[in-house]
Amino acid sequence: MIGVSRKKSAIKIGVLALQGAFERHQKVFQKLGFDAVQVRTPADLAKVDAFVMPGGESTTMSQLLESSELFDPIGRRIKNGMPVFGTCAGMILLSKKILDGREDQLSFEAIDIDVQRNAYGRQIDSFEAEIEIDSLDSSFHAVFIRAPRIVSLGSEVHALAYCGDDVVLAQQDNVMVASFHPELANDVRLHELFLRGV
Amino acid sequence: MAKSEVSKTGSMTVKRGLAEMLKGGVIMDVVNAEQAKIAEDSGACAVMALERVPADIRRDGGVARMSDPEMIEKIQAVVSIPVMAKARIGHFVEAQVLESLGVDFIDESEVLTPADESHHIDKFAFKTPVVCGATNLGEALRRISEGAALIRSKGEAGTGNIVEAVRHLRSIIGDIRKITQADSAELFEWAKRLQAPLPLVQEIAETGWLQVPLFCAGGIATPSDAALAMQLGAEAVFVGSGIFKSDDPAPRARSIVEATTHFRDAAIIAKVSRNLGAPMTGIGMDNIQERFAERGW
To answer: Out of A67, A131, A145, whose CB is closest to B18?
Structure first.
């Protein structure tokens, strides 16, 4: 669905490794036979063809994006079409508008969705559920940890999966976001979906 | 499009899931809402709400207990990041109270005075994830067998001295490395020696790591301390007295956050270590009356 077509081995996937579940994402891509590296500096970013923003604490990542001088270069790469997949906190960082965030919290405004942080409640309300994803032939086990909720979508955004009434997987051009954690599911299909065509 | 039906809360997957999300971050001890705000402003990935930091508990003596629910709620009200709180070892009613307050993680902590001299809390009985301390791999595996969703090396809280944290991390991770080299017959001996369930030992031999994340606590006072713990193999750090017992907490907190992220980059650690003012004074191990790390069984 996304981007340039090249040989598997030649593609380098970067995982934003400032804080959070970056290693789990890296392992999924490695399991799929891709070269996946951790990105902490602009020099790391320059070497990658596709990008993942993991779950973790979005306010922490926001501050570290600035202090690590990554915010502007990542923003430029996304604008120039770099495929990017954001999960949970990563989705918050990519969204157009953050509700219940910190006032100084940064976002890339890369996908036309409004996102509410911690919308399902505290950790005690974190949950797992089976969801149906359009292009997969069987259900996907989705893990929601203090999850954000997509509260509105622009007309250019495709809803790819629901949980209850909520859109939990969405895509616009080169940007895909999930409010849950496919990296915790021992299921590589969503990462494959992201990579299809990269 | 089909919509999802059944959902499940409080599972081990969900509990360990939050521990995964805290990786690479700094969890800061705070004693009031103002400190909690400073911690969040400085990039903490979570805060630990408690009445006195370990250095003060050590100084004051007496029985240290769960914090006042009022104080925990005030902290929950001012920050949007996860809030943790401590229960005494074996004090499952304190843990029940903390769960009813909606704290995101319960720390069954040796920093408080133990309530039970032989039993830890049955952590499977809770929907809230529980973190426990460990000084060695056997202790870590016993806590995991009781349902801990996260292990932290104990170190020696309230000392500002990293030496015990290093000892515990090296012990836990060193034994994990040895187990990955052991043959199947040797694993029985390992289980016996560690006083830990055999299936957990066998799983480590297979995966090369604990069943849950391993963080470091107890004695971190500087950005270099945090990076040392990370390079030794910790996956995140708890900083207790090290921040709010230092001269200038906010810049020190920020610098420890940055050093934890860039833990292999000495140039960045050097940059963030400049002009932080004095760290907490700290105590040598020969001069402490009571070792918190010896609490827990």
So the answer is: A145
How far away is chain A from the Cα of B18, in angstroms, using its nearest Cα?
6
For residue B270, what are the contacts with CB-CB under 8 A and spacing of at least 6? Answer: none
Residue A131 has pLDDT above 80, yes or no: yes
Whether A128 and B7 lie within 8 Å, measured CB to CB: yes
Q: What is the mean pLDDT of chain B?
A: 95
So what's the ipTM on this one?
0.94
- Pull the structure tokens for residue B253: 């907190």
Q: Residue B26's closest CA among A149, A178, A3, A19?
A: A19
Residue A80 confidence (pLDDT) above 80: yes
Rounded Cα–Cα distance for residues B81 and B257 (Å) = 15
Count each helix (H run) and each strand (E run) in chain B, helices first: 13, 9
Residue of chain B with shortest Cα separation from A68: B258
Place of tokens 């951790």: A38
- Map residue A183 onto helix, strand or coil: helix
B71 or B278, which is more confident? B71
Least confident of A6-10, A36-40, A194-198, B11-15: A6-10
pLDDT band at B240 (very low <50, low <70, confident <90, very high): confident
Distance CA B215, CA B202 (A): 22
Q: Give dist(CA B234, CA B215) in Å, integer.
A: 5
The size of the A-B interface in CB pairs under 8 A is: 149
Looking at 3.60.150.10, 3.40.50.880, 3.90.1150.10, 3.40.50.300, the CATH number of the domain A12-196 comes to: 3.40.50.880
Are A174 and A3 a contacting pair, CB within 8 Å? yes
Nearest to B1 among A55, A134, A181 (CB): A134
Does any CB of chain A come closer than 8 Å to the CB of residue B25? yes
pLDDT in tens, B113-157: 999 999 999 999 999 999 999 999 999 999 999 999 999 999 999
Residue of B nearest to A124 (CA): B128
The answer to whether the Cβ–Cβ distance between A19 and B24 falls below 8 Å is: yes
Q: Would you list the domain boundaries of chain A?
A: 12-196
- Residue A110 makes CB contacts below 8 A (sequence gap 6+) with A75, A78, A79, A84, A94, A95, A96, A172, A175
Residue A7 sits at φ, ψ, to 5 deg, of: -70, 145
pLDDT at residue number B6 = 65
pLDDT score recorded for residue A149: 97
Query: Contact at 8 Å (CB) between A149 and A100?
Result: no
